[in-house]
Design goal:
By secondary structure, the protein is α+β, with helices and mostly antiparallel strands. It has one domain (22-34, 43-195): Sulfite Oxidase, Chain A, domain 2 (Alpha-Beta Complex). Helix content is 13%, strand content 32%. The protein contains three helices and eleven strands, in the order H-E-E-E-H-E-E-H-E-E-E-E-E-E. The chain has helices at residues 5-18, 61-65, 94-100; strands at residues 24-25, 46-51, 54-60, 70-77, 82-93, 110-115, 120-124, 134-139, 142-143, 153-155, 168-174. Strands 1, 4, 5, 8, 9 and 10 form a six-stranded mixed sheet that branches. Strand 4 and strand 5 (82-93) form a beta hairpin. The longest helix has 14 residues, at 5-18. The radius of gyration is 18 Å and the shape is globular. 32% of the residues are buried. The protein binds ligand MTE and molybdenum atom.
Amino acid sequence: MITRGFTGRQRTPDITKRLPPGQSLTEDFPVLSAGPTPHISTEDWSFTLKVGPRAIAKWNWAEFNALPKTRQTRDIHCVTKWSKLDTPWEGVLIDDILAAASLTSPPTKFVLAHSFDGYSTNVPLADLVSGKAMVALNYAGKPLQPDHGGPARLLVPHLYFWKSAKWVSGLQFTRKDEPGFWELRGYHIYGDPWREQRFTGD
Ligand SMILES: Nc1nc2c(c(=O)[nH]1)N[C@H]1C(S)=C(S)[C@@H](COP(=O)(O)O)O[C@H]1N2
Ligand SMILES: [Mo]
């Protein structure tokens, strides 16, 4: 009889539970971008909060870094079927960004995240607040590398990773749920990995 030993028996069920359907574990950190990596210096960087076309708050790099910072270790799931467990991030929670803008009551229920490379992705406001999402500035204790979205990226770990906009330049409240870059090209409007919402109609 073949025995798998203690570690195999203990680790497998735990890891299996953390893998959404159709996903496989990866130990490295793949880079996936629709275009070339833009290199944005922190001097040129800014983050803008908009309601429709109207900017209601804007921070430069120093101002943004003065906002409260939070550390979160999260599992991430890419629609191309890799998942990575326990990824360590540090950044500013969306809750703290909205509070800094004195936004006590949200203007709409939908948000489009915008990036310096022209990328965008839509996320319902409810999926960005209550500690669920942040603008990440650090990964594994170091400034976020350009390939992974540095200086700053959105992190929405409970949705497929295309929702975590790299090189994020701001958030825009929209009246309706407006599809972003990949959502216009066949990806699911919401993207819940646990319900395998990969493509439109899933
Ligand atoms: N601005 C921007 N953000 C982006 C993308 C992109 O092309 N541009 N690609 C998305 C996709 S499809 C994925 S899977 C993840 C990949 O992040 P990573 O390269 O850090 O693994 O970033 C997402 N965020
Ligand atoms: Mo992706």
